[in-house]
Structures are given as structure tokens and as C-alpha cells.
Amino acid sequence: GEKGKGGGGDKGKGNGGTIRKTREPGDASKAWGEVATAERLEENKNLRERFASSPESLTEDERARAKALLERDARKRAKREDKIKQKEERRERTLKARANRKRARAGQI
What we know:
Layout: H1 38-53, H2 60-105
Helix pairs in contact: 1-2
């Protein structure tokens, strides 16, 4: 802009004076990390079974991995059970609300 006319060039025109960058699309294959292969799943299954039958036969690393797998299994099981419980509670609330609306329409409340 010209001197004395409050110029400042393109400042303050659109987008609040900021330059917005668009994010480049990333590699979708890396978004969630590696997916376990069938071979890896089989190894984990065998490790769990070996740990259950004779933990002392495993190396220290194998034992640590087996414990981590079992702890993860327990967390997943608890999460699944919690989700089922929440769904049942939500269903009960829905049925109760539905019954109350029905009674209200019938003039019983």
C-alpha cells in the first residue's frame, strides 16, 4: 500500500492474514502401524499355550511377551464386557423411557 493510506500490502485480507497449509496425504499403510500376519498370530497363540502349560520352559523374553499378551487379552475382555454392560443399560433406559411415554399418552401419569 501507499504511505499514509493505512496500507500494509495484502496484510489482513482474507483468512485473517494467515497462510493455511494443506496437509499432504500420508502413506495409508503406515497410519496404524503393522498388522499382525497369520504367522505372527500363530506364534502368539503358541506362546500363550506354552506359557499356560509350562512357563519355566520359556526364555525370559518369551515369558515377558506371553505375560504382555495375556494382560492385553484381559484388558480386551474387560473392555468387551464393559461395552456389553453399557449396551444393556442403554437398552433398559430406552425401554423404560418408551414405557413412560406410552403411559403418558394413555393419561396414566
